[in-house]
Amino acid sequence: MSLSVLMAPIVGWFFFRERPLVIFWLSLPIAIVGLAFLSLSNGWHLNVNQLWFLISALAQAIFFVFNSRLVQKIAILPLICVQMLCTGTASLIISVFTESWPSSISLITLMWLIVSIVIATILRFALQFVGQKYVPVSNAAIIMILEPVFTTLAGVIVYLEPMPWTKWVGCFLILISLLSYRGYNFIGKK
């Protein structure tokens, strides 16, 4: 799914003719190789699920680009409310027709559901939208590529997952990609 943030500047170029900087094209292959090292440590096997992930990543990139433009014109709180209401309503309808519901839900389960909605979803999107409001799509996309690095490191720290050399190389390449992109933008503005 992290491919979506790499696709975002390309999608922005396609829809809005916002041409990515040259340094983006130089940083992109480094980030892709880094993602490959992070996610393909057990090998790569072609199957239909990967096509669905690719389509989902493209949809997420389109959302990212259009959302970056919306946060410039609409206040963040109403934007989050509308998006969460639409997503929640659609998910509830799909759930009613495709899933079996328990006859009762414990209070602790309900509490964790509310916490995950408020913290993991609404707060996360609010912070992302604030960030997207103040940076161009290509900058936000390169910064968002750190998500799999943080996820991998959290797995190592919290769950004591093993960290093979391929994941270290992946994290390093993604970091190099980000630093080269951001360093170029920082130096170029002086």
Summarize the structure.
The chain has 190 residues and is an all-alpha fold. It has 8 helices and no strands.
Written description of the protein model:
There is one protein chain. The protein is an all-alpha fold. It has helices spanning 3-16, 22-39, 48-73, 76-98, 107-134, 137-144, 147-159, 165-188. Helix 1 packs across helix 3. The chain is globular, with a radius of gyration of 19 Å.
Q: How do the SSEs run, as a string of H and E?
A: HHHHHHHH
Q: Share of helix among residues?
A: over 70%
Q: What's the β-strand tally? A: 0
Provide the residue-averaged pLDDT. Answer: 84
Number of helices: 8
Mind telling me the C-alpha Rg?
A: 19 Å
Oligomerization state: single chain
Span of the ends, CA to CA: 34 Å
Strand content: under 5%
Low-confidence stretches: none
Question: Sheet with the most strands?
Answer: none
Q: Specify the structural class.
A: mainly alpha
- Give the overall silhouette: globular
